[in-house]
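Blinded run. Sample ID left blank on purpose so nobody reads anything into the name before looking at the predicted structure. Input follows.
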Amino acid sequence: MVAVGDTALQCYEAGTGDPVMLISGWPQSALAWEKLIPLLADYRVIAVEPPALGTSQPTARYDMQSIADLFRELTQEFGLPRFHLVGHDIGCWIAYAFAAKYPDTLRSVTLIEAAIPGIAPGSAYAFTPEQAKKTWHFAFNYLPDLAEDLTRGREHVILEWIFRHRAAHPNAIPRASVDEYIRLYSRPGAFAETLKYYRAIFESGAQNRVLAASKLKLPVLAIAGALWLGEAMQGAIEPLAEDFEMLSIPDCAHFPPEEKPAELAAALRKHFGRCR
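Blinded prediction complete.
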């Protein structure tokens, strides 16, 4: 647990070699990387849980620039040289903001399975038969009071639904992992605190539009599950980068680190190998 700013972030470290930072998303923890980390054992892997996610402590502000600043302080605490940054879901939001604000600290950035607030086209959030399972939670999580009132004491209902319906196969996320996520977010106030990322989404979007005026010059890899965001990730991320590559993983939905860890590790290794 590393103190930064007004909070403390839970970090897990393994391996030696060039540093790689992994940022997990909502509603998960660093456990999401459990299958991937052994496949990157020749790197110094640091898996970080963002504020209010996993066992990291809350913070006062959940807009992306404020969160990116906390991560900059974290990298200074670790004394990291230039490193590879990988973010999934909300971790992807954080990774983009960090890369745009602090590009000189990075060797590369990998953005996995998320639309960047304020940058992605409105169609990415459209309520259509094809999109409904992917987009409903943005409005639900944004509305004041409703989500916490409906889920208090019943967090397992929404979490079970998410992990059953947002993966390519119902058993893709191990039962033990689902149980751990339920335990984490059933703690009093824990689930409600995570909603603050969504309630800051318009502020984050405005910040991102300013950042996007300058394209990322470092190597950028976008990764999607072919059965979830798929090629839409290319349209969402490619305009932000001068040096861009894209991978859409077959038979995979929203959780590549758990659904397809071997394919993800191979893609990361290839990406890291071309970065100086």
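Unblinding after everyone has recorded impressions. The longest helix spans residues 64-78.
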